[in-house]
Structures are given as structure tokens and as C-alpha cells.
Amino acid sequence: MSLFRLALGRFFAALLALALLSLSLGALSLARQHHAARSAALDAPPPDLIPLGALPPDTPPLAEVNLRAAIAAAVDVALPVGNGRLYLLADPARPTAAPQAALLVPPSDLAAAESLIAQATLGTAQGGGPVIALNGTLSTPIWIRQAEAAAADAHRPLAADMPFIRPFYDGRAAGLAPSPLDYAVPAVCFSLFLAFMAVQVAQALRLNHARHVLRGLSQLDAQVEKMAVASADTAPEGMHWATLAARRSELRQRRQRLEAQLHRGRTDSRGPWLWVGLIVAGGAAGLVPQRLLSERVASHLLGADLTGLLARTGHAAQGLGLDSLAALPGDLLAQGVLLLLGPQSIGLAGTLRMLPVTVWIALLAILVLVLQRRAENRRAERGHLR
């Protein structure tokens, strides 16, 4: 390992450790702000009841709202956890206009939603749908993709930035009560920081052990040289030949053990799999709907300002055509599946086409790491054979 590579590795390790620590402290600050905001909201009365059309378009995610809305349509949605329902909400003054908000109810909340709608009904809109009062928060559901697909199948497509409302099914006090889960994100970030520091300390100890082994190898080489000189001066039929041969065999075996220790000290067998875990986690994060991930990152990890800057950078990348380039792996694989399996594989091809590019990057990176690991094992085996 060259001095340059060692210094460069330590430099990037220090940067990563600093980034993890900064994320932990920033997430902790945001968690405290959310905790304080919820406590202050509980001490205050709910917001004034306003029509849905008067909701400001820049209302931040997770903000409390108190809206008067007309139910324009109810669409059944097939979710991975069962059949849910999507309520499309319109302004009471224009009940036949395009929906301005939505309410996605999972199977576990269907009974609570029906009870809430029955109790919160204020009247009937001109189109015949009920007008209800909804007190809750703006929150993008995890099943937003299924909701968008169901709405499109029902010929009621949703706007890209349509707000979703999460009502207080169990009351306002329960919905706004501070939760210990608010500190889950900073706890995870700080755990990652501690785990990374532990890995770095273990790697430093292994490197120090490798240096000791190198010194042991140098001393062993000197002994081998002496044994070689002694063997050259001793005839094969001499009485000391067997002793010298046994000693040389012992030194050869010891050298192989020291070389194995040196290899383990220089390379961490857990390192590649740590990267595999990080890559898989990144690929799994790509499966989360982008809008939901952006909202959660903005509210619990980076803050709204930095997230907005990253979003603008992403929009600029889409303008450069990178969005279509990112969809290329899924499109090619979907076309290959259709060619091999025929029209009956349309569902599988559609699923592959919807996978985000992070999944393909994760799979490619795992393949590269596995091939690199196999190449290192082959080099090690050739070294032992010599």
C-alpha cells in the first residue's frame, strides 16, 4: 500500500466521518424543531376552517390544515397490503372542477375514514358529493404510485404536485402528539457515524499489525539466508542434513502463515460487504417514491433549503436529457423480457421499466465488487502456489 493511497484513503474517510457527524447534528436540530412545533400547536387552537381552494400552494409538508372540501370521487386502489380507497377532493364552490387534493385510505383505516366522513359532513355540494371538514396534516403516502395509477385508470389523473391529506383519525391531540420516532433519523445517522469510526479504528489496528508482521518477515528472511548458507556447506549424507531440512520446512511454513496474516492485515474481508450493504441500502431508497423521499429528507435530514437546491439540480439534469438516459436500463431489460417470454410477460416488463436507476447502479456496483473480490482471491492463491 503506497503512502499516497494511504493518505488519500484517510482524507476521504475523514470527509465521510465529518459528513455523517454533520448530518447527525442537523437531523437532531430538525427533530427538536418538529418536537417544539408540535408542542406549540397542541397549546394553540386548530387553524381556521378554510375552503380547499384557499389553501396556499406553498404550504409545507407535514403542516396542519383545516379544510372544507367536497368529495368529487372515490376510487378503489389495489395496494400491496390490501384494497384501499382514494378520495378525490375539490373546492366546495367548484365541485365539478379538477380535484385539488386527495385522501388515500389504506385498508387498516377504511372503517375510521368512513366514520370520520360521516361525522365531518357539513352538507352536499352542487354535484351531489358530500362536503366535509378535514383536520389533519399534509403528508404524501408511501403508496402514492399505486394511487396515481388507480386514478389514471379511472380517467381522473392526479396533478404531479397534488397535496395529500392525512386526517386526525384519533383526534387532534393524538395526531399532533410528539413521538419518540421524531428522533429516529438522528439516532440512525449517529449510529452510522459510530459504526464508521469503529471500522476505521479496526482498520488502523489491522494495518499496525501488518507492519509488525512485515518486520517479522524481514527477520525470517535473514534466518532463511543463514539456513541456505548452512545447507550449502552440509553434504546431503551428513548427520545434520535432516535437521537442516526440517528447519527449512518449518521456516517455509512459518513464512506462509505470516504472509497470510499480512494479507488479512492489509485487506479487510468485511470492507467489500460493508460497501455492498451501503449500495443495497441506496438501491432500496430508490424504490421509495421520489416525492415522499424528498419530503422526508427535507423535513428530517437536510432541511428545506438544501433539499430545494438539490431538487433544482435534479430538474436541470432532466433538462439535459439525463432522465431518459437513466430510464434506458429498465427499458432495455423490459424489451428483452418481452422478446424472450412473449406478451404474457407485459406485467413483469412494466415492473422492470418502473424500477429507478439507483437499483441498476446498485446491482452493477455489487457485480464489480464480487468480481474484484474473486480476482483478489485468485492473486492470493497464485502467490501461495509460488
Q: Order of helices and strands, N to C?
A: HEEEEHEEHEHHHHHHHHHH
Question: How far is it from the N-terminal to the C-terminal residue, by CA?
Answer: 21 Å
CATH arch. level architecture of the largest domain: Beta Barrel
CATH class of the largest domain: Mainly Beta
Largest sheet: 7 strands, mixed
* Count of structural domains: 3
Unreliable residue runs: 313-322
Radius of gyration: 32 Å
Q: How large a portion of the residues is in β-strands, by DSSP E?
A: 5-15%
Secondary structure: helix percent: 55-70%
**Oligomeric assembly:** single chain
As for the CATH topology of the largest domain, it is OB fold (Dihydrolipoamide Acetyltransferase, E2P)
Structural class: alpha+beta
Look at the structure and give the mean pLDDT. Answer: 75
Task: Please characterize this protein's 3D structure.
The chain is α+β, with helices and mostly antiparallel strands. It folds into 3 domains: 50-178, OB fold (Dihydrolipoamide Acetyltransferase, E2P), CATH 2.40.50; 184-268; 271-320 and 356-385, no CATH class. It contains 13 helices and 7 strands. The chain has helices at 3-43, 110-120, 144-153, 172-176, 184-232, 241-266, 270-287, 290-302, 304-319, 322-326, 328-341, 346-354, 357-385, and strands spanning 50-51, 64-79, 82-90, 101-105, 121-124, 130-138, 165-167. Strands 1, 2, 3, 4, 5, 6 and 7 form a 7-stranded mixed beta sheet that branches. β2 and β3 (82-90) form a beta hairpin. α1 (3-43) runs antiparallel to α5. The two termini are 21 Å apart.
